Amino acid sequence: MAERQYQEREMGKWQREMEDKSRQWFDNVAELSERITFGDEDWFIQQMEWICNGSYGSGACFDCQRHLNRLTPRMNQVAAMGRFFLSAVWGHDFTGWHKLTPAAQRIATRDVRRWLKLKNKGFGQKLIEQ
Questions:
Q1: Which domain holds residue 39?
Q2: What is the pTM of this model?
Q3: Count of the separate structural domains present in the chain
């Protein structure tokens, strides 16, 4: 019970941070698009790994696990996890997919697809569900 309470508390902190607009790391979508396109070749996939290994905080890690647990075979898993990762990197809810350049969209899609293929299937099972 204590572990579940800890996970819920950390996810709550993470979600409050995500709601705080002052945490936005990029001034606009064009800057994020440029970073994805012209940054290091594996910058976006590196950010995804940092979210999953707890570098963004344990709340981000638990939230990622929760999103993975909710994936079903019938849903577009790449879009669901891509939306989560872009929101985490952006700093709050990301709604600017259509504003990203086509190159940034391709890179983000490719990296999320690659991450999902490489991800250990047991990763999402670590989260204690209610």
A1: 2-126
A2: 0.76
A3: 1
